Structure to design on (440 residues):
């Protein structure tokens, strides 16, 4: 019957995809033409959350990706290997691929899309970023006519959950992380999420689509949320901000003419977001991606960034997309010339990424200093000497017998701000630089 798919993996996302595929009523009619031929798992005799004929299960993953009957391989096993090798083998055997694996795509997208173009197959990845939020296909298709200026996202649910609780409860990072782990919102090993690495993978993928070039993951700056404190949350709130882990991809513009330049900034870091900004209201595990382009202006995608149903919705929408090309006869023997450019990867060059020293941002700084006359004046002079203009400077109280001083700068080149900071670290009146955060 119809179009045969093979699934690699039957974890949360795989099970969610199987549930949709086995229950096509009242969904797109093409779903009823899609059949699950095989599901590759590690262990045959585990209890499964979905019912399907037992004979579709196999532990022979190689035979699944080389099966001549299977047209679409759906990789939902996660991890780097054997996922990468199995995707490549499926491509070499002429299979279209659907994957939810942002880690593999962000690291090996170059190899995978080159192989896919040579083999004349499609590799779709809607579930890799933003879970159930449709953002990959809109960037490639509905927004494809725009010149994209920036993509700014909250694209890691775990960190958004932790930061939201810190903000709402006035708590510190460590105990809230422990609670999030207990509740299943954070992994036992939380590094990929809390250190910003998961968001870096995802913004690399979004930037590649938005700006039409490949991205070297090592060039994405990433800083996590471990250093964000309850004190910073409270000061941010007094100053009219919330702190969010933002992933930012932005085309640089000429400082005088605002003409777009052929280089991007690509960064993940905790950021003070003004309360009136649309991303400030995105809380808990939700994700949102704000795209700015010409002529559309701003458009924001919001929704569940993870979870069985939402992620499976994205996976099956990719299967449906490929199935549509197969039933219309466009999916067989495609070549680089005949491939649908709205589904295939059409770029090959690498984007130029500017160093962090060159970015222009506002900064938030919290210092502990001796509480004596002239300290604030000295700070002002130091910043002035480095062309850093200050927007606000406040001393609200004492912490550990030191004056706690909070400064927000105007927009300034990061290199200038860091040099000023290096200088003032040497002042005898400065006890410590407690936090430095960027401001949107
Ligand atoms: N670990 C991810 C997050 C979910 O916390 O958003 C899957 O991408």
């Amino acid at each position: 019957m119809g179009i045969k798919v093979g699934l690699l993996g039957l974890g949360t996302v795989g099970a969610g995809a199987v549930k949709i595929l086995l229950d096509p009523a009242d969904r797109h009619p093409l779903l009823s033409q899609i059949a699950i031929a095989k599901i590759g798992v590690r262990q045959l005799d585990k209890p499964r959350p979905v019912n399907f004929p037992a004979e579709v299960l196999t532990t022979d993953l190689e035979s699944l990706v080389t099966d001549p009957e299977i047209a679409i391989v759906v990789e939902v096993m996660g991890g780097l290997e054997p996922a990468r090798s199995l995707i490549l083998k499926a491509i070499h055997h002429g299979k279209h691929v659907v994957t939810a694996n942002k880690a593999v795509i962000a690291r090996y997208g170059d190899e995978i899309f080159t192989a896919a173009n040579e083999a004349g197959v499609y590799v779709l990845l809607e579930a890799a970023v933003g879970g159930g939020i449709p953002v990959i296909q809109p960037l490639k298709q509905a927004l494809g006519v725009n010149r994209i200026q920036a993509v700014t996202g909250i694209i890691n649910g775990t960190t958004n959950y932790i930061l939201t609780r810190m903000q709402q409860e006035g708590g510190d990072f460590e105990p809230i992380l422990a609670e999030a782990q207990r509740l299943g919102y954070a992994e036992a090993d939380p590094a990929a999420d809390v250190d910003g690495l998961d968001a870096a993978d995802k913004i690399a993928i979004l930037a590649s689509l938005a700006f039409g070039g490949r991205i070297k993951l090592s060039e994405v700056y990433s800083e996590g949320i471990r250093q964000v404190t309850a004190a910073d949350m409270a000061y941010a709130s007094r100053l009219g901000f919330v702190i969010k882990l933002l992933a930012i991809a932005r085309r640089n513009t000429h400082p005088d003419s605002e003409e777009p330049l052929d280089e991007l900034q690509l960064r993940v870091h905790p950021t003070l977001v003004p309360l009136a900004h649309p991303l400030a209201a995105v809380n808990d595990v939700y994700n949102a991606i704000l795209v700015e382009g010409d002529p559309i202006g701003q458009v924001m995608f919001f929704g569940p960034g993870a979870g069985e149903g939402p992620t499976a919705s994205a996976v099956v929408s990719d299967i449906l997309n490929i199935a549509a090309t197969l039933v219309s006869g466009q999916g067989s023997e495609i070549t680089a010339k005949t491939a649908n450019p709205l589904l295939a990867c059409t770029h090959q060059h690498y984007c130029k990424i500017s160093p962090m020293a060159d970015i222009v941002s506002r900064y938030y700084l919290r210092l502990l200093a001796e509480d004596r006359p002239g300290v604030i004046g000295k700070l002002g002079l130091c910043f002035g000497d480095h062309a850093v203009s200050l927007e606000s400077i406040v001393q609200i109280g004492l912490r550990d017998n030191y004056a706690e001083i909070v400064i927000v700068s105007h927009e300034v080149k990061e290199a200038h701000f860091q040099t000023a900071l290096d200088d003032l670290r040497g002042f005898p009146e400065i006890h410590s630089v407690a936090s430095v955060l960027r401001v949107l």
